[in-house]
């Protein structure tokens, strides 16, 4: 194992061991076992079928779209697809669980072991094992803040399909857990199987944390339930691992229990201990046949998969000669990668891939982030950005001017060429004009000219700056350099 | 005229309706009158006379337009386990107090589509859990045959109200459900025909669930032919029930050829129980003789795991029931008893809403699914269940149908066996195996015991071979020539 960030306790080093259970809402028009709609934010109890409300005699019928989504996700996680799986009932009472049981998959999930490669800042890839992926129903929502003495129940979410994706305990730091979640969300969004929206609860994580002395057996773990942002996952791990180290170093022991992370107080709190844990009395749901499909069903889904982040990144590195880092940044979101590719070789576009990567990552992303816009909302289209980069490439404008032009493009949505023409920003490549400007500057600064001849590099730069200033930045810097050298020797 | 109309079979009534000699409204009125006259049987939880008259008038109108369905104008009773749109549906339980579904079960909808007329919702053991119809929140049903012996007898259960209604000439037929014998055993106790189809033949959608892997709807009628007619109307593939099977529905009536020459009738040795009344044994032997005389070949077969069927059933059925009944929590429909907090509300509601037998089975089911007991009980029972299925398959390698008694006794007195659940569970010893294996079974009235109470014989068929089962049952019925009726009021 690499990448372990050890905790320095006062009795020695501790290693953190992390496993994540990601609950991802399946992108689907209707619920896992009913035809009710799944739109987020609808009026309470407006998307509830007789099945969702568990009326007497109602029966679940599997939504095969959700099965396809689960299998596609399994394929995206390089996982074994089980052609035979079983839906079980997980029994417990709660008002937001109308059936009195959740239909889930216990012993035989639809997807088995797989692997996710996470991208660490060190650049070395880390493989995190996937234990399983199974389909299950979400519960409804209990609203405790609507009335002073009553709780209200919204069943819109009851029965919505969830994928529970369980990792192996392969992560060794909060950074790795964050990288894993980032990668997981990226893969799910590429596949279109989950929108990855953690604010809306479309994706949430249960975090299993334990600590141990490096090289020893696994310690007792605590499960932190329902953490709903990557930042909170990171914080929860930090806080929880330290809590455990402190207990152990004080000679105590860890109780296996379920805990909640409180981001306001920056602490985890016990929810219920193992002794109080439910006996869910899992058994195969007799209302449903085992879920069975053949290999060709899987093969067809595999054939329809999009290019996933890892493959895209590798291609960007080999095809466009990008650095691992740049390629990694560009492929996190499918839309971003598509934008980049459109800049590089989209219809009516086409420019240097490395230059394009720099422009997309530093200029475009920087501006979008500042404005809180997504790539889809970018006022500068890929073709337009490509047009700007081409003007730099063919020396029509300098890189310096290009940044100003970009800013105007972002404001107005106008093409780069139009802005350059309207504002007369075209670079001066006429050596006669530049010579005249250089001549003027030399005459005005005899002292500096002497220093230049003596080889003072700082002064060389100063001269370039003066000439650029005199030409409103439009002089071709290469020509300025050449002419300066010619005039002043050096 | 009234009594003549209520004495018809479905086939006879259908023929008279077709000829225009009677109207559906005439039939409905005669049966509504009988239903009112026989109120003391407590066969109905909710009589629906007005609905019956409306449906009968509609049936006559559609016949006049030349659009008569298979059961046009036939007055039927429906076990109160079938959800019926806008009509109180109770499952015989206090916990469904006031529950009026906004939907209609697939099986009942199929019947109404075929033109049948609903007389009312019949009494049953609570959530279909029982063999005597004494666990109903709405009180026990009396078997009309009690009049023959001057005692209040059980009609059997759980479809006790349906059986009593058909036996007492209140309905031409009734629709029931059979989880471990709940159609066949009351049919035997009431001197009528009761049939459980292959699991998956009829949709379970809209039927209040007891044990999902065992529940199956079926007809209770006075003749084998009527059962064949009703099943044809009830059966369908239903995309809303994942366990319903996509197979075409045959014309079961056409299978009643009366010819069983060369048919191999299996007699399972293990159904010969210790302590079984001599009369039951004698009737069984008589049945064997009838079939042999009709040209069938009698084959001794072995179903070695028979003795494990009942224990297996009493693990599987309560396990599923404990989970199926979790939805009765007082939150969305039916009874609610408010408590100090959520847990108290759950407990108070379920304590008040469920009767003793339901509570017993929920407890048993919860126990056998619990961590640490699951493997020893539920998993073991599932293995036994598979083996029982294999036993039947092996037997059907040597025969085409099986012939057995339906129940180990005739109807008993209300109140008897109440304090001994095990003795009560023994009622289902001959019927439960067919549910575990998902096979079709039919009980045919075959004779009277020395007190003059009806006894039934059962034919079990191969999965989805209801036709052969009906053919054999038809021959048995003809040979038995059972004409006895419960004494009228």
Please tell me about this protein's structure.
The complex is a heterodimer of chains A (490) and B (489). With 490 residues, chain A is of the alpha+beta class. Chain A folds into three domains: 7-301, no CATH class; 307-423, no CATH class; 431-488, Arc Repressor Mutant, subunit A (Orthogonal Bundle), CATH 1.10.10. Helix content of chain A is 39%, strand content 18%. Chain A has 15 helices and 16 strands. In chain A, helix 13 (446-453) crosses helix 14 (457-470). With 489 residues, chain B is an alpha/beta fold. Chain B has 17 helices and eleven strands. Chain B is globular, with a radius of gyration of 21 Å. The relative contact order of chain B is 0.14. At the A-B interface, loops of A face helix 11 of B.
Number-wise, the strands of chain A total: 16
Question: Can you name the CATH architecture of the domain at 2-256 and 444-455 and 465-480 in chain B?
Answer: Alpha-Beta Complex
Strand arrangement across the biggest beta sheet of chain B: 1-3-2-4-6-5-10-11-9-7-8
Average the pLDDT over all residues of chain A and give the rounded result: 92
> Describe the biggest sheet of chain B?
11 strands, mixed
Q: Compute the number of structural domains of chain A.
A: 3
- Number of distinct helices of chain B: 17
- What share of residues are in beta strands of chain A? 15-25%
Principal-axes shape call of chain B:
globular
**What is the subunit arrangement here?**
heterodimer
The biggest beta sheet of chain A reads: 9 strands, mixed
């Amino acid at each position: 194992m690499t990448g372990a960030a050890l905790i320095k306790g006062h009795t020695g080093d501790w290693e953190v061991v992390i496993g994540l259970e990601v609950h991802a809402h399946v992108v689907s028009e209707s619920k896992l076992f009913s035809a009710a709609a799944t739109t987020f934010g609808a009026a309470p109890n407006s998307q509830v079928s007789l099945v969702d409300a568990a009326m007497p005699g109602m029966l679940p019928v599997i939504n095969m779209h959700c099965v396809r989504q689960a299998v596609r996700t399994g394929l995206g996680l390089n996982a074994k697809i089980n052609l035979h799986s079983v839906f079980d009932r997980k029994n417990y009472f709660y008002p937001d669980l109308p059936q009195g049981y959740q239909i889930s998959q216990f012993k035989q999930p639809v997807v088995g072991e797989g692997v996710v490669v996470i991208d660490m800042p060190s650049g070395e890839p880390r493989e995190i094992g996937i234990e399983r992926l199974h389909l299950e129903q979400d519960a409804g929502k209990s609203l405790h803040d609507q009335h002073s003495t009553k709780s209200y129940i919204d069943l819109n979410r009851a029965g919505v399909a969830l994928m529970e994706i369980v990792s192996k305990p392969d992560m060794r730091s909060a950074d790795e857990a964050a990288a894993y979640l980032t990668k997981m969300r990226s893969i799910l969004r590429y596949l279109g199987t989950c929108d990855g929206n953690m604010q809306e609860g479309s994706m949430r994580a249960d975090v299993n944390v334990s600590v141990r002395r490096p090289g020893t057996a696994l310690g007792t773990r605590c499960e932190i339930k329902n953490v709903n942002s990557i930042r909170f996952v990171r914080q929860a791990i930090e806080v929880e691992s330290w809590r455990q180290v402190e207990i152990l170093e004080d000679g105590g022991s860890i109780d296996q229990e379920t805990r909640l992370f409180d981001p306001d107080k920056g602490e985890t709190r016990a929810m219920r201990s193992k002794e109080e844990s439910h006996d869910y009395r899992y058994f195969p749901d007799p209302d449903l046949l085992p879920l069975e499909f053949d290999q060709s069903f899987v093969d067809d889904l595999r054939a329809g998969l999009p290019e996933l982040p890892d493959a895209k990144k590798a291609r960007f590195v080999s095809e466009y000669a990008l650095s691992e880092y740049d390629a990694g940044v560009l492929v996190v979101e499918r839309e971003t990668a598509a934008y980049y590719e459109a800049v590089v070789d989209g219809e009516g576009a086409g420019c240097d891939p490395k230059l394009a990567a720099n422009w997309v990552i530093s200029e475009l992303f920087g501006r979008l982030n500042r404005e809180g816009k997504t790539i889809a909302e970018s006022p500068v289209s890929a073709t337009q950005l490509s047009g700007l980069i081409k003007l730099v490439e063919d020396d029509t404008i300098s890189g310096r001017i290009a940044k100003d032009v970009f800013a105007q493009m972002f404001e107005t949505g106008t093409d780069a060429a139009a802005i350059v023409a309207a504002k007369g920003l075209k670079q001066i490549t006429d050596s006669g004009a530049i010579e005249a400007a250089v001549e003027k500057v030399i005459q005005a600064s005899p002292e500096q000219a002497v220093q230049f001849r003596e080889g003072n590099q700082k002064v060389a730069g100063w001269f370039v700056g003066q000439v650029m200033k005199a030409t409103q930045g439009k002089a071709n810097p290469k020509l300025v350099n050449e002419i300066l050298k010619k005039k002043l020797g050096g | 005229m009234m009594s003549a109309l209520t004495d018809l079979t479905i086939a006879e009534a259908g023929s008279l309706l077709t000829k225009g000699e009677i109207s559906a409204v005439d039939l409905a009125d005669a049966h509504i009158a009988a239903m009112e006259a026989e109120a003391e049987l407590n066969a109905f939880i909710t009589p629906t006379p007005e609905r019956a008259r409306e449906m009968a008038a509609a049936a006559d109108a559609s016949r006049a337009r030349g659009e008569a369905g298979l059961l046009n104008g036939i007055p039927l009773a429906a076990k109160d386990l079938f959800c019926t749109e806008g009509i109180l549906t109770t499952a015989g339980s206090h916990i469904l107090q006031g529950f009026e579904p906004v939907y209609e079960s697939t099986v009942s909808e199929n019947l109404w589509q075929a033109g049948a007329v609903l007389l009312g919702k019949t009494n049953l053991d609570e959530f279909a859990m029982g063999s005597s119809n004494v666990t109903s929140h709405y009180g026990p049903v009396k078997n009309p045959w009690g009049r023959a012996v001057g005692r209040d007898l059980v009609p059997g259960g759980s479809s006790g109200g349906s059986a009593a209604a058909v036996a007492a000439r209140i309905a031409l037929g009734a629709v029931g459900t059979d989880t471990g014998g709940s159609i066949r055993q009351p049919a035997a106790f009431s001197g009528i025909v009761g049939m459980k189809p292959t699991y998956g033949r009829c949709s379970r959608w809209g039927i209040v669930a007891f044990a999902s892997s065992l529940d199956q709807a079926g007809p209770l009628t006075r003749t084998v032919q009527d059962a064949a007619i009703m099943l044809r109307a009830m059966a369908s593939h239903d995309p809303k029930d994942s366990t319903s099977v996509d197979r075409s529905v045959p014309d079961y009536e056409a299978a009643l050829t009366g010819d069983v020459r060369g048919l191999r009738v299996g007699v399972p040795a293990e159904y010969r129980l210790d302590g079984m009344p001599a009369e039951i044994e004698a009737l069984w032997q008589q049945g064997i003789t009838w079939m042999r005389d009709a040209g069938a070949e009698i084959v001794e077969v072995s179903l070695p795991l028979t003795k494990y069927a009942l224990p297996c059933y009493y693990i599987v059925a309560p396990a599923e029931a404990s989970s199926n009944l979790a939805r009765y929590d007082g939150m969305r429909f039916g009874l609610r008893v408010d408590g100090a907090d959520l847990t108290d509300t759950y407990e108070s509601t379920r304590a008040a809403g469920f009767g003793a037998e339901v509570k017993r089975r929920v407890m048993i089911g919860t126990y056998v699914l619990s961590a640490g007991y699951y493997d020893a009980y539920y998993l073991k029972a599932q293995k036994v269940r598979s083996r029982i299925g294999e036993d039947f398959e092996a037997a059907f390698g040597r025969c085409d149908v099986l012939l057995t008694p339906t129940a180990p006794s005739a109807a008993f007195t209300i109140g008897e066996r109440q304090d001994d659940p095990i003795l009560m569970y023994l009622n289902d010893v001959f019927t439960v195996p067919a549910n575990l294996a998902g096979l079709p079974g039919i009980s045919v009235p075959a004779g009277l015991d020395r007190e003059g109470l009806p006894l039934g014989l059962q034919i079990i068929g191969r999965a989805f071979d209801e036709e052969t089962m009906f053919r054999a049952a038809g021959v048995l019925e003809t040979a038995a020539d059972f004409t006895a009726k419960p004494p009228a009021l």
